[in-house]
Amino acid sequence: MLCGLFINGPYAVITTAVSNDLGTHKSLKDDTKAKATVGAIIDGIGSLGAACGPLITGWVSDEFGWDQAFFVLMTSCFLASLSLTRLLIKEVRYLYNRVSGRWRKYRKLPDC
User: Fold this and answer.
1) Short-list 29, 13, 7, 22, CA closest to 90
2) How confident is the model at residue 110 (pLDDT cuts 50, 70, 90)?
3) What is the pTM of this model?
4) Residue from 17, 47, 20 nearest 36 by CA
5) DSSP-assigned letter for residue 25
6) CA 19 to chain centre
7) Are 61 and 69 in contact (CB under 8 A)?
């Protein structure tokens, strides 16, 4: 149960965050079909990865050993994290600007 929580939890958060980010893009304004298509594509690619991941891991472990299988898993996790770096930077900047704006408001300091 704990492994499922740590695997499916981040997957759900990532797919929701990316779908929400792409769904709020200017080009999709009020087009609900386009938003649904974006969500379905992201979910489908995640499901494809979930289906192919064990196959690749099994093949690598049989051919090259478990050390290499774990190296492949670590590499794929790193690449997935790297692909989300841009979104993370955007969210951190948004939160920083939001918090620093409140701090200036309460302290009544001039804007720099």
Assistant:
1) 22
2) low
3) 0.57
4) 20
5) S
6) 9
7) yes
Helices (H), 2-84: 2-23, 32-64, 66-83
Percent of the chain residues past pLDDT 90, beyond the cut: 10
What b/e string do you get for 72-85 counting C-beta neighbours within 10 Å, with b at 16 or more? beeeeeeeeeeeee
**Residues sharing a CB contact under 8 Å with residue 14, sequence separation 6 or more, in sequence order:** 46, 80, 84
In angstroms, rounded to a whole number, what is the distance separating the alpha carbons of residues 59 and 40?
Answer: 29
Structure tokens at 3: 């492994």
Inter-residue long-range contacts of 39-48, CB under 8 Å, 24+ positions, other chains counted: 39/15, 42/15, 42/18, 43/15, 43/19, 46/11, 46/14, 46/15
Model confidence over 37-65: pLDDT tens digits? 877 888 888 788 888 888 888 899 999 99
| The two three-digit tokens of residue 37, written as one number | 């298509």
Distance in angstroms (rounded) separating the CA atoms of residues 96 and 75 = 30
